[in-house]
Specification:
Layout (H helix, E strand, L loop, with lengths): L1 H26 L7 E5 L6 E2 L5 E4 L6 E3 L5 E3 L15 E5 L3 E6 L4 E9 L14 E4 L4 E6 L8 E9 L3 E8 L5 E3 L1 E6 L8 E5 L3 E4 L6 E8 L17 E2 L10 E5 L20 H4 L1 E5 L11 E6 L6 E7 L12 E5 L2 E7 L1 H5 L6 E7 L8 E8 L11 E2 L1 E7 L32 H22 L12 H4 L16 H8 L21 E2 L2 H7 L8 E5 L2 E7 L5 E7 L4 H14 L10 E5 L6 E5 L21 H20 L5 E2 L8 E3 L5 E3 L6 E2 L8 E2 L11 H6 L1 E2 L1 H17 L15 H10 L17 H14 L10 H20 L20 E3 L5 E3 L16
Organism: Ensete ventricosum (Abyssinian banana)
Main location: membrane
Membrane topology: Single-pass type I membrane protein
């Protein structure tokens, strides 16, 4: 009877174990909320052998912004038949281009980039040099394909905190970028823990969940390669055979996947790694030694400028009983775990377990990471042995927010600090560079001494001729120059050119030095008929050069305190700014105490004249208005992020947005601009300046200036463009005087169509208008912290333009087209038509502006 009872008990135990494993697997099924699979450059969808379907660009609900539509295919005669069909087409970018993917649930997302420089008759993909970045993380910097060409998948885990994630491809000057396929897929929230065991110094490393990761290696130790269809999260696990330093030191061992169990507490699930990983392992080939120098070693190349997250997977599938396996774990020769006892951690055999380690960049030598397991001399019980089932090596983003190099998304250089204070190595070339710079300065000073003017002793100072503008004692650029000394210098007539120390031929960034005679000739001796603008600084004249080139010539008013200050600020800003959507400074003139700046001429004048007033311009179409707003937003976005510290314009309005002959918008008038707060500051405390109707109320109340003050002003501009009326109109009833306040009231009541420009009736897509108004409304939030950045405003405006273009290209589909995504993602309000044009989904329409769109 007893044997029967024991047999039944044993059977029940086995059944219980099996139920634990199966329930664990069933309870952790994961369906990604965002699942974008994109075959770039393909004409139709591509189905892989594993069943996954990658959609073509036109079919995808992703959003591509590029200056040129270039799709290429591999030449049939040279195409490698062994590569996936995903690698046989590509998108090529000659300029900065961006894919945007709508995100239904923020959090961890996989980004996988498929790259293969196949042969093509027109484009040499192997010569491509480009950078790839998300909104805040550099994924690849100056990437160049392998030669000879090989198929590569770059895999990343990034944290998405917004409702979209963007992938920007930026080719190096004179080169191009390309991409074969892209994946953007949601990852489980608990896939990456926030902490890891630190190696040298020992302790705990926190903040992992905030970092971006690049998967450098993912190995199924002791087993075969695992393809995406056999992984719970679509990952690829390579065999570890090619990474063993001494293959003879290890032997493979495996069991049935049905024997693998996951802990009841959910600390390890099949989402961490599938049972296939835990069912195979490498163990010591010679298990009869206790020599601590006898280890199994995996060797992998690594970037010594980065720290790494190493995840090691263990499952005791070799022991016959508990408490029979003890071993040490080493990383780069340093003890990671001493006397690892899986039995004490899992309380059973064949139970999955993993541990994360943070590896300091300073411990990486010879650009190599070594992972080792070996016996411990303390293995008193059982046979000495050591195992490893799986291994993941992930690069952690550095202080620059980069996974490749030391440049941030905005192009700024960060000198090498790794995350969490993990220091990187000092570049030895810094001393050499400083020495070379010093020698160069000595040579320049010697040459200028040899060429010193005859009357140099009569000059104000030695530095006035020896040093360039930025080193002189008092100049427009000098913040330490008092108003009194500035006035004295302004009124000086001691030399032919009273500002020779300010506008010298050595001045960087001010362009051509015009003579006063040239300026007088260009303006017909400052003829009042040529005046095209007046401000606190003075007047702006239309100038004409001999070759017919038109110029805008700004002449400073010496009696104006405001003009002097604004003039100084304008020089400071424009001398270091160059952008397509900022008015360009061409040159200057400083003869006879004049303050004259020469700009490119903007043939269509200020935006305001095209909205209302007496200028006589025809009204702009809705698409033209969107394009103008996008251009201005790009200019402001560059001001906020493109300069080393950032610049706040402080006077954004429709009269300071100028249009050239092609209606390209450019931001102008930087006289009130201020440097943005540094990283240690939240705002700049300053006296309130700006224009009524556009002024940020929070800035007005607190006298604390931030970039969000420009965002507020731009929100007023957006409503001014939409409604074609001035920001302040005292002739209207009191509640309507301030456009920003009035528009927000109408929007809250659902009556915005009452105040929209009548010229737009019947021409505006409801979806486009909705996105535009959403952007404007967010800009006018009471508190700056609740307003979007100019980058976000720009993105929404570009999206609104795409929605409008969709209706213009497909007028019959403007309010009825609908397509269900095949990605498992939130339905996007935009999809691509057969020719790559955006098509509006019906669920993004809104009744707010139905009367505005009647088709075309």
């Amino acid at each position: 009877m007893r044997p029967i009872v024991f047999s039944l008990l044993f059977f029940l135990l086995l059944a219980t174990d099996a139920n634990v494993a199966s329930s664990a697997s069933a309870s952790v099924k994961f369906t990604p909320s965002d699942n974008y699979l994109l075959d770039c450059g393909a004409a139709t969808s591509t189905q892989l052998n594993d069943g996954r379907v990658f959609r073509s660009d036109p079919q995808s609900s992703s959003f591509l912004s590029t200056n040129e539509d270039i799709k290429v295919s591999a030449d049939n005669s040279t195409a490698d038949p062994s590569v996936s069909p995903l690698y046989l087409t590509a998108r090529v970018f000659n300029g900065r281009s961006t894919y945007s993917f709508f995100v239904s649930k923020p959090g961890r997302h996989w980004i996988r980039l498929y790259l293969y420089a196949f042969a093509n008759a027109k484009y040499n993909l192997t010569s491509a040099v480009f950078t790839v970045s998300t909104d805040d993380i550099v994924l690849l910097h100056d990437f160049t394909p392998d030669s000879p060409a090989s198929a590569v998948v770059k895999e990343y885990l990034v944290v998405v905190s917004d409702d979209k994630v963007s992938l920007t491809f930026a080719p190096k000057k004179g080169s191009h970028a390309f991409i074969n396929a892209v994946e953007v897929v949601s990852a489980p929230d608990n896939l990456i823990a926030d902490f890891a065991a630190a190696i040298s110094p020992a302790g705990q490393f926190n903040g992992v969940s905030e970092l971006a990761l690049e998967v450098a290696y993912r190995l199924n130790v002791g087993g075969r390669e695992i393809v995406p269809i056999n992984d719970t999260l679509g990952r690829t696990w390579r065999s570890d055979g090619g990474f063993l330093k001494v293959p003879a030191a290890a032997q493979n061992v495996s069991v049935s996947t049905k024997t693998i169990k996951y802990p009841d507490d959910g600390s390890v699930t099949p989402l961490i790694a599938p049972s296939t990983v835990y069912s195979s392992a490498d163990e010591m080939a010679n298990s009869n030694t206790t020599d601590p120098n006898f280890n199994i070693t995996w060797e992998m190349a690594a970037d010594p400028a980065f720290s790494y997250l190493i995840r090691m997977h263990f499952c005791d599938i070799v022991s016959k009983s508990l408490n029979a396996l003890y071993f040490n774990v080493y990383i780069n020769g340093l003890m990671a775990v001493s006397t690892l006892d899986l039995s004490s951690l899992t309380s059973a055999l064949a139970v999955a377990y993993y541990k994360d380690f943070a590896v300091n960049a300073t411990t990486i030598t010879n650009s190599t990471i070594l992972v080792q397991v070996g016996p411990t001399p303390d293995s008193a019980a059982g046979t000495p042995n050591a195992i490893l089932n799986g291994l993941e090596v992930m690069k952690m983003s550095n202080a620059a927010g980069s996974l490749d190099g030391l440049f941030a998304v905005d192009g700024s250089y960060h000198g090498g600090a790794a995350p969490g204070g993990m220091a990187t190595k000092v570049v030895p070339g810094v001393g050499l560079a400083l020495g070379a710079l010093t020698m160069g300065l000595v040579v320049v000073m010697f040459c200028r001494w040899r060429r010193r003017p005859a009357d140099w002793q009569k000059r104000n100072s030695f530095s006035s001729w020896l040093l360039p503008l930025h080193a002189s004692q008092c100049s427009f650029m000098s913040s330490s120059c008092s108003k009194g000394s500035y006035r004295n210098r302004f009124g000086s007539h001691k030399s032919k050119s009273g500002y020779s120390g300010v506008f010298s031929s050595g001045t960087i960034g001010l362009g051509k030095i015009f003579t006063l005679a040239e300026v007088r000739e260009a303006t017909r001796n400052f003829d009042e008929k040529e005046v095209i603008g007046v401000g606190g600084f003075g007047k702006v004249y239309l100038g004409m050069q001999d070759d017919g080139t038109k110029l805008a010539i700004k002449r400073g008013n010496p009696s104006s305190e405001q003009g002097i200050n604004e003039f100084q600020t304008e020089i400071q800003m424009l001398s270091k700014l160059r952008h397509r959507h900022l008015v360009s400074l061409i040159g200057c003139c400083d003869e006879n105490s004049e303050m004259i700046l020469v700009y490119e001429f903007m043939g269509n004048g200020p935006l305001r004249d095209h909205l209302y007033g007496s200028a006589g311009h025809p009204p702009l179409s809705w698409k033209q208005r969107l394009e103008v707003c996008i251009g201005a937003a790009r200019g402001l976005h560059y001001l906020h992020t493109g300069a080393s510290q950032g610049i706040i314009h402080r006077d954004v309005k429709t009269t300071n947005i100028l249009l050239d002959e092609n209606l390209v918008a450019k931001v102008a008038d930087f006289g009130l601009s201020k440097a943005a707060p540094s990283l240690e500051q939240t705002h700049v405390s300053t006296a309130v300046k700006g224009s009524f109707g556009y002024l940020d109320p929070e800035y007005f109340r607190r006298q604390q200036l931030t970039e969000k003050s420009d965002v507020y002003s731009f929100g007023v501009v957006l409503f001014e463009v939409l409604c074609a009326r001035s920001a302040i109109n005292p002739a209207l009833p009191r509640e309507q005087v301030n456009l920003g306040e009035w528009a927000m009231q109408c929007q809250r009541k659902g009556q915005l169509e009452r105040i929209i420009d009548p010229h737009l009736v019947g021409t505006v897509s409801p979806a486009s208008l909705k996105k535009y108004v959403e952007a404007a409304e967010k800009c006018l939030a009471d508190h700056g912290v609740d307003r979007p950045s100019m980058g976000d405003v720009l993105w929404n405006l570009e999206y609104a333009l795409q929605l409008q273009d969709a209706v213009m290209e497909h007028p019959g589909e403007g309010s009825s087209s609908e397509e269900k995504g095949n990605h498992g993602a939130r339905e996007s309000p935009v999809r691509k038509g057969d020719e790559g044009h955006a098509v509006i989904n019906n669920d993004d329409s809104t009744p707010i502006a139905d009367p505005l769109f009647r088709g075309r």
